[in-house]
Design a protein that fits this description.
This protein is α/β, with parallel strands linked by helices and about 350 residues long. The chain has 13 helices and 11 strands. Helix 1 packs antiparallel against helix 7, helix 3 runs parallel beside helix 4 and helix 8 packs parallel to helix 13. The protein binds pyridoxal-5'-phosphate.
Length: about 350
Amino acid sequence: VSQRPRIYLDHAATTPILPAAKAAMMEAMERWANPSSPHSEGRAARAALEDARERIKQALGWEGELIFTSGATEAIEIALSDYDLYAKRHLAVEHDAVLRTVQSFFPPLGVTPNGIVDFDDLHGLMDDRDQTRLLAIQHANNETGVLQPMLKIHSVVGEPFGREIAYLCDCAQTAGKLPLPRAEMIPVSSHKLGGPPGVGALLVRDLAVLQARGGQERGYRPGTQNLPAILGFAAALDAAEPWLDRAAVLRARLEARLQSAGAEVVAKDAPRIPTIGAYRMPGVSSEAQLIHFDLAGIAVSAGSACSSGTMKVSHVLAAMGWGEQAAREVVRVSFGPQTTQAELDAFAGAWEKLAARKRAA
Ligand code: PLP
């Protein structure tokens, strides 16, 4: 029996590891040593670590500091844990990694129905900012792809950052794909850009905004660095080629076809990173869709992977004003550099089939 190859359209959850990243990791595993050891092997490991740090900074266009972490979640945790309850503000559609760490005393900044920060709320925060020391507004949303208007946000929050309010911009979904925005602190993740999971970084403009804890990474992240993963992360960024323009063309075609079959495109008119699209199939739950697509050989996701285990209603769609019923009918499709037109045609075909079955029922 010939097996059809599976179609992976869940790159926002995690990406396949690029061959160059795999090769770098395999090679690193042959040259083990602790980068903190003073012997020759340790010094060689340290040199490889520092070389990777510089390459990642260069690839991302970041001139500040870089602290290696186990991923964006830990980078967020390091960035936010020093600020007290009253000092932190955040956007309603932040990733759970931010929501868990912020535990803000204040209600979050709202978003418009298109998922973009509500500027009335942002102006309100600036008018009444006495206690605010940190503001978290993500770059692209992981469920909808919506990009926040960074320059407009900067014009309200003020330049340069760091004087009054440190700005944290979660770039887990955009690093390695789009130029980084200006921010005091930027969490990034390797497994969203073709590198291995379990490694990432906190980019910090000035370490003075953080409190050192002692240990590795100049005292800002204790624990032996995962050198093979870090080298895989650097290799993935080095190997990256521009592909967003192609993704934009593929997504536009997909969306035109899905819409004519009755789909509602989430945040259709907002600027969105072209690697993510979210689509509602009226009357069909996202669980039923996921099973249908899985049987058709296609991996997609219902909202963010972290919340799909419990299938709770997306806080992102809720903040955009979606009702519970409609929010439970949305599926996220996310592309990588390997995604082809034929794969998206197969997805669209499977989508049309299920929608037609629903209409006939
Ligand atoms: N922030 C966003 C926007 C994400 O999409 C993710 C990944 O799901 C994270 C943070 C957490 O990243 P990591 O898996 O590297 O901890």
